[in-house]
Design a protein that fits this description.
It is globular, with a radius of gyration of 20 Å. By secondary structure, it is an alpha/beta fold. The protein is built from eleven helices and 13 strands. It has an eight-stranded parallel β-barrel, surrounded by six helices. Helix content is 40%, strand content 18%. Helix 2 runs parallel beside helix 3, helix 3 crosses helix 4 and helix 5 packs across helix 6.
């Protein structure tokens, strides 16, 4: 299996994300470019750009970083509702053309401040039905011409996106990543996504989900290439196992002193709740999956951490690989230091 390793750029207006140093220029183009170039220099394929209302627009950030780099591939997180599919398909195709085929896309369906940008609140079934149509239509617009589509949520007539996406080997269009742990989300992933992203669950849970998604793909008549799988997780790496756990415990103790009420929209998500529930099973699961951060405000990929030396963390990531994970989106703070540390210490241990 060919493995791909990406990092994370939080794309936050507010400084200090997950322990990042607070600086006035933390989200400037120069600062972000330094990170993107460090990713190029340290063996990373690119980075996921975080999205949400109240954060910089991800496509604009991606275009700016692509213009200042040579190989950096932005994984652009976007939301149906914020974008309409034809508008997004056109914008992404343009950036893919200008960047020489470096665009990746992460479709996010979780709840957001929808009213702020004119979207409406639907129930879970409606939300994922819309996401399914969005994925279907964007893919059609990238691979077909004169597209006419009549869905419940989106419609286009005789639509051709230009410039056309240039096929590059097996890549017919930008890879479509998708997350979500509910039954409705998994049905969308099984039929329409290219890569299903998981958060940092124990190996047993990831194995069960991969098996279920593969069975769903067959049951629902998936029409695309087989679904691939990815892991989005915090990797807390230090020179020794002992130092890693000492630093991780100290960081969680600091989080506990400054613990904040979790975002209710995030906490309501099925995938997030699965992570938070892990703490009831123990503070450390498998070999080194640390669940304590979730008790003190750690959310999303910061809810659980893989902790240890580079050898410890590489051993754990290889176990996820053996389950079928081929896309890894890793991170820790300070972001620049860890891009370099993990690029030089961790990635060489995960080479094919």
């Amino acid at each position: 299996m060919s493995l791909e390793f990406l990092w994370y750029i939080p794309n936050q207006v507010t400084p200090g994300h997950r322990g990042e140093p607070v600086t006035a220029d933390h989200n400037s183009l120069d600062t972000l470019t330094v990170q993107a170039k460090a990713l190029e220099d340290n063996g990373w394929k690119g980075a996921l750009l975080g999205t949400g209302w109240g954060r910089p627009d991800t496509l604009t950030v991606a275009a700016s970083l692509a213009a200042r780099t040579e190989t950096f591939e932005p994984l652009i997180a976007i939301r149906p509702g914020y974008w309409r599919p034809a508008n997004f398909a056109s914008a992404a195709a343009t950036l893919d053309h200008l960047s020489g085929g470096r665009v990746r896309v992460n479709i996010v369906s979780g709840k957001d401040d929808l009213g702020a940008y004119g979207d409406s609140e639907g129930d879970q079934a409606d939300r994922y039905a819309r996401t399914k149509e969005f994925l279907q239509l964007v893919r059609k617009l990238w691979t077909e011409e004169n597209v006419t589509y009549r869905g419940e949520h989106f419609q286009v007539t005789d639509s051709t996106v230009v410039p056309r996406i240039v096929p590059r080997g097996n890549r017919r269009h930008p890879t479509l990543y998708f997350g979500g742990a509910s039954a409705a989300a998994e049905r969308v992933a099984a039929t329409e996504a290219d890569v299903q992203l998981f958060w940092g669950e124990p190996l047993e849970g990831v194995r069960e989900r991969i098996e279920r998604l593969r069975a769903l793909s067959e049951e629902l008549g998936r029409e695309h290439a087989p679904l691939e799988f990815g892991l989005r997780i915090t990797t807390f790496v230090r020179d020794t196992t002992e130092q890693a756990w000492a630093d991780a415990d100290a960081k969680v103790a600091e989080m506990a002193k400054n613990s904040q009420t979790p975002n209710p929209r995030r906490r309501a998500a099925v995938g997030q709740q699965r992570l938070l529930d892990l703490a009831e099973r123990g503070e450390v699961l498998d070999d080194n999956l640390y669940t304590a951060p979730g008790k003190y405000g750690g959310g999303g990929a910061g809810t659980t951490w893989l902790v240890g030396s580079a050898e410890d963390v590489a051993k754990s990531l290889r176990k996820y690989r053996d389950l079928g994970i081929t896309h890894f989106v890793l991170s820790d703070t300070p972001y620049l230091r860890e891009i370099e540390r993990q690029g030089s210490q961790l990635l060489p241990l995960l080479g094919e």
